[in-house]
UniProtKB/TrEMBL annotation:
Gene3D superfamilies: Cadherins
Matches recorded under PROSITE patterns: CADHERIN_1, CADHERIN_2
SUPFAM superfamilies xref list: Cadherin-like
Annotated keywords: Calcium, Glycoprotein, Membrane, Repeat, Transmembrane, Transmembrane helix
Annotated ranges, domain Cadherin: 20-123, 124-233
GO BP of this protein: homophilic cell adhesion via plasma membrane adhesion molecules
Alphabetized Pfam families for the sequence: Cadherin (PF00028)
Top-level lineage group: Eukaryota
The protein's name in its UniProt record: Protocadherin beta 15
MF terms (GO), sorted A to Z: calcium ion binding
Intracellular or extracellular location(s): Membrane
Cellular component, GO annotation: plasma membrane
Length: 240
């Protein structure tokens, strides 16, 4: 005789969830609004609760997961990022099934943030006071100014310059010069205390970003007296 036997195979939770990354954008520019970083798909070859999954990332990151089609997720920024605060993020995608015992798969992504020229150079002081003794030699190094920029690359490269003086009578171009690369200041000619005791001018620091950002600082130069004049009698006049 014959008999028919039906065998039902009961699923066991023996397959780990799978993560397939379809696209990844890195670096992403800072200051951008909601930006898509990655698109990925998850799946589990088991059935029932063994094949149902949850998907998550760390809570303390400025990113969120958005489900799209079934088992597809988009990783997006949760607002604008600031490269100067954090330039790189390590994101762990965790997919866990609902079987017993639960099986978990993780995938790590590294996302870097590219720089935007959003910081102007900052001088170490708002005002610099320099002192130089009169009768100095020409081209004497009398001091320096310094500025830094929190950006990176060309956006952080600083160039120094002398700005037009507020006093149109001040012959600044014949008094001092500045090294555009390092901010060193030089007296171009011998200074005379009896003719000029002090003068001030502004210096600029500009980065090489596009558009360039800049800032200013004030420089005061005090000329110190030297004993270079002999006394003479004004009155009474001496007869020869």
């Amino acid at each position: 005789g014959r008999c028919s036997v039906s065998i039902e195979v009961v699923d066991v939770n023996d397959n780990f969830p799978e993560i397939t990354i379809s696209s990844l954008t890195s670096p992403i520019p800072e200051n951008s609004p909601e930006t898509e970083v990655a698109l990925f798909r998850i799946r589990d070859r088991d059935t029932g609760d063994n094949g149902r999954m949850t998907c998550s990332i760390q809570d303390d990151l400025p990113f969120v997961l958005k489900p799209s089609e079934e088992n597809f997720y988009t990783l997006v920024t949760n607002g604008a990022l600031d490269r100067e605060s954090q330039a790189e993020y390590n994101i762990t995608i965790t997919v866990t099934d609902l079987g017993t015992p639960r099986l978990k798969t993780q995938h790590n992504l590294t996302v870097t943030v590219s720089d935007v020229n959003d910081n102007a150079p900052t001088f170490s002081q708002t005002t610099y006071t320099l002192r130089v003794r009169e009768n100095n030699s020409p081209a004497l190094h009398i001091g320096s100014v310094s500025a830094t920029d929190r950006d990176s690359g060309a956006n952080a490269q600083v160039t120094y310059s002398l700005l037009p003086p507020h006093d149109p009578q001040l012959p600044l171009g014949s008094l001092v010069s500045i090294n555009a690369d390092n901010g060193q200041l030089f007296a171009l000619r011998s200074l005379d205390f009896e003719a000029l005791q002090a003068f001030e001018f502004r210096v600029g620091a500009a980065d090489r970003g596009s558009p360039a950002l800049s800032s200013q600082a004030l420089v005061r130069v005090l000329v110190a007296d030297a004993n270079d004049n002999a006394p003479f009698v004004l009155y009474p006049l001496q007869n020869g």
